[in-house]
Amino acid sequence: MSKEAINLSRRALLRNTAVLGAASLFGAPAIVGAASPIRITFGHGAAPGNPRSVAAEKFAELVKAKSNGAIEVTVAGAAQLGDDAAMLTSLRTGSLGISANSQGTTSSVVPELAALGMPFLFADSASAVKVVSGRIGDQLRPKFDAIGLVPIGWWDNGIRHITNSKRPIRAPDDLKGLKIRTPADPSTIDIFQSLGAATAQIAFAELYVALQQGVVDGQENPLTNIASSKLYEVNKYISLSAHKWESTPVLMSKIAWGRLNKQQQQLVMEAMAEATALQISLSSEANTKLLADFKGNPAVAVNEVDRAAFQKQTASVFDKWEQKEFGAFVKALRATMGA
Question: Considering only Cβ atoms within 10 Å of each terminal Cβ, which end of the chain, N or C, has fewer?
Fold first, then answer.
């Protein structure tokens, strides 16, 4: 090859390298056939319009935007993937990526979680989320890690109230003779049994029909769940007991988490922080509006309760839980809240 030909070849090589470098710099694909996005499914049991449902969709939108399409989250709500127990199992096997699960169901694998539902522990949702997002949540993280789960957020499942089809609940004695549906949450079960009610555990997706058919007389849930699932249609009486707060732990499969690099994990957490702020804000706004709506609805009867009487009647639940294997955690939680 002549010296002139060699120089031409070198110039062509440099020119092509410069073009490829510019393509990379400005985000254009230098190689045909870019890597496929990482796809993650986010399952939850909330009905459309519920703050959890809205926040899940927002999270998916944020993750796609922050990752420039490298991560795509598909939301499957309204228990499309089964109830919370089924989704929890799917998380642990890696067949589901993320779930906004329930405190009761998750406590079956992390028992300490149920202690967040001690009676009258939190005055409001804002203080509860602040506590669980801090040192208390840090104490729970290793428990999740040991069973293949990564807690990526703590959503608000609300301050909970009692509904039933029989009568207003004003004092603990009004619950005697009633069968109340509770989630599979041991602290909630203990609360209602201490108040003299019979309890039954029914999947939330089946609750409306169970109330309609009289399988149970009543249930307990935050106003957002009562409204979005239209439970007030089959339970006329809404008693504002505010007997407990409950979290919605947003959990990610450790297998799915491991598919992400450090930068991607960070952006997922950033997206979750934004989605969490939205979910908590929507819950607060919804509760204020829903309370006014329920009070203005002639088909619904809303009443206050004797909170002091309820607190006195349920105090034994704290004593019982401090005797459990994780009693030290219960005591730390109680001390944190001054309960």
Answer: N
Long-range contacts of the stretch 316-321 (C-beta < 8 A, 24+): 316/194, 317/118, 317/119, 317/187, 317/190, 317/191, 317/194, 318/118, 318/119, 320/190, 321/115, 321/118, 321/187, 321/190
Per-residue model confidence as pLDDT tens digits over 95-141: 999 999 999 899 999 999 999 999 999 988 888 988 998 999 999 99
Bridge pairing between strands 38-44 and 71-76: parallel
Q: Is residue 97 part of a domain?
A: yes
> Of 102, 96, 97, which Cα lies nearest the Cα of 116?
102
201 part of a folded domain: yes
- On whether residue 6 sits in a domain, the answer given is no
Query: Phi/psi at 68 (nearest 5 deg)?
Result: 55, 40
Domain containing 111 equals 38-337
| CATH code (residue 143) | 3.40.190.170
Would you state the torsion angle of the CA atoms of residues 314, 185, 179, 86, taken in this order, to the nearest 10 degrees?
Answer: 170
- What is the total count of domains within the chain? 1
pTM attached to this predicted model: 0.81
Round to the nearest angstrom and report the end-to-end CA distance of the chain: 89
pLDDT digits (tens, 9 = 90+) for 252-272: 999 999 999 999 999 999 999
